[in-house]
Amino acid sequence: MIFAIVAGVAAGWISAVSLIENYGFEAAAGQPQWKERRSAADHPAAPYAFGYFINQGQVPPPLTARHFVRGTDDEGSNLRPECLYEVSGTMPSARRWSMAVSGGEGSAATLGAGEAIYEPDGSLRVFLSAQPVPGNRLAIPAVSAPILSLTIHDPQDAGKPLALPGVKRVRC
Amino acid sequence: MGRLYWLLLFMATAIATHAAYVLYYPGYNFDSKVAAAMGDGSHNKMMMLSAAQVARLFPAYSANDVVAMCRYDLTQGPMQISARLPRGYWTFSIFTVKGRQVYSLTDAQAGESSFTVDLSQSPDILAKIKGALDDGGEAEAISEVGWKVETPEEKGIAVIWVPVADPIFRGTTLAAVRNSTCQRVK
Fold first, then answer.
1. ipTM score here?
2. What is the number of structural domains in chain B?
3. Which CATH superfamily is domain A2-171 in?
4. Which residues lie below 8 Å from residue B138, measured CB to CB, with a gap of 6+?
5. Which residues of B touch A113 (CB under 8 A)?
6. Least packed by Cβ within 10 Å: which of A143, B34, B62, B69?
7. How would you classify the pairing of strands B66-73 and A107-112?
8. Min CA distance, B55 vs chain A (Å)?
9. pTM for this entry
10. Helices B2-19 & A2-22, crossing angle to 10 degrees?
């Protein structure tokens, strides 16, 4: 009897943790490296999507925003703190965006639309690096699996796929 | 028969654990982590967050944005939140302690930069039935006085977010948002 209860608790706990980590997000259309938070409050995955943030002691992004995360570069390799990455592209039309790198407790570095320096054509280049570099930079924390997040606040095309910037590894 | 019994026991325990972890544990966990980040005595008052607190609690905001937060507790009665915000983009959100967003307002929806919201806990199903019987079915009529929000949980947070268009405006933005309040209805 004890074995059945212990096995049941373990199975329930493992399935809950796994679903919170994975079911609350889905691959962004055409850009599978980016995972988008399922934001519809009436979606069956909503409790898992909320749980992802709540369990880390973070407030979920507001429902007026679309929130994306990724832990890999464009080649599918995990982001590493000893490497230099370039996040580049044109941000989707929206009232605001914000970008962050996290690892451990909360965001280690953030960048908002009002703080960024843009290219002459309106595109954006942000370097992810533990070392100082010229231009926009997000400091990668020295953790094994840093996560890059991008939040688009009040996007113009709220229900459509958004073109998101790529993440290219420059050097390690 | 014996195997079926153990299988059912295993499944019932797994389902109960899964549901408890997803639906109930996050609320307790979140409240304690927010309390740790905000410090003691942070209930029922509007607090301006430092950059470190914003980075710790809000994955969707830049640490340099202006964020004000009220940890409401409706066990002693309704609360009133008054916001005085600068012109431009801002959002006002109310979350339950379990992370469910129950209210959202932006500058475009509000059409003005100052507003007051009365926050109360929605009555449970028994209270609704009792009220309907007592009032002859009029209990659910909505009051027309101000904006009212009912939340299913007695605890949660109300958040004002004002992104800073340029770092040089942070001081003036902060000074404007500082006039917002969160207090018990007297």
1. 0.84
2. 1
3. Domain of unknown function DUF1214, C-terminal domain (2.60.120.600)
4. none
5. 163
6. A143
7. unpaired
8. 5
9. 0.84
10. 40
